[in-house]
Amino acid sequence: QSVLTQPPSASGTPGQRVTISCSGSNSNIGRNTVNWYQQLPGMAPKVFIHSDNQRPSGVPDRFSGSKSGTSASLAISGLQSGDEADYYCATWDDSLNGPVLGGGTKLTVL
Amino acid sequence: QVQLQESGPGLVKPSETLSLTCTVSGASTSTYYWNWIRQPPGKGLEWIGYIYYSGGTNYNPSLKSRVTISVDTSKNQFSLNLNSMTAADTAVYYCARGKSYFSYWGQGTLVTVSS
Predict the structure, then answer these.
(1) Residue B107 has pLDDT above 90, yes or no
(2) Which listed residue, A31, A48, A85, A110, has the most CB atoms within 10 A of its CB?
(3) Which strands form B77-82's sheet, in the order they lie side by side?
């Protein structure tokens, strides 16, 4: 059982915009910034959004992050087949004094 | 360029202790937070624990009784010991740098628990 709650799956057609949610609590998302990771099959996760809404160099601007209260979202616009992957949210938890992660969302491009 | 590389056995017998090492290049293990994260086949990521610059540690409460993370700054390595291994511990084990912004990851190493 993950501390952060994500939908297990999401889907969209090429060109569409999809969002993936991440729900937490006051001790984690409510007080700390959220990071999003993309994991392609057989690969290590790679950070795609950090500090709620910052894109590392090389990540397309089709990816964006937002946060409100104890929930965060990852939005992907202009969906492409190469975006098909698992996506995880993560943040710091002040009660645990450690990181907490979501269970992951499998994105399918139809 | 920061690089992390996991090393250790790919096969562990039930009840035995897993020992993995993460070798870091391009950064010092005497700074930052250094984590172990695992992923059972077909499942999500699970944070195991971290060690940070002062040598302090913190572990996932669900694994705390079985985990030890240590650091050897002279070799720029940090290590994971997980005892009383069972089939449920079969997973890809990753090392990663950061508090929750894991900016650098190792490639991962598959550990299978089987007799």
Answers:
(1) yes
(2) A48
(3) B3-7, B18-25, B77-82, B67-72
